[in-house]
Design goal:
single chain; alpha+beta; 3-stranded antiparallel sheet; 3 strands; 29% helix; disordered N terminus
Amino acid sequence: MKNSKFGGMLMLLAVLGVNSAVAADDVSATAKTVWVDGKGQGSMASDVSEMHAKMNKEGWRFADLEVYTEDGDMKGMFVTYVRD
């Protein structure tokens, strides 16, 4: 991830605690990436499933999922959704 062109943006999102790369009220957006945190005792699969259902209701469809690891530990997932 260090050499990724998105690395700086992802780090900024993580530092700021932002859950979405696009403002929630930006109805003109055609893509949105959300962070699903891997910390805690919850199931990441359940968290992602809940996120899919929520985003689907809002008119978004799943596009991509990237697992973020640091020192071999899974820290969370970036999930991207799109709409036409």
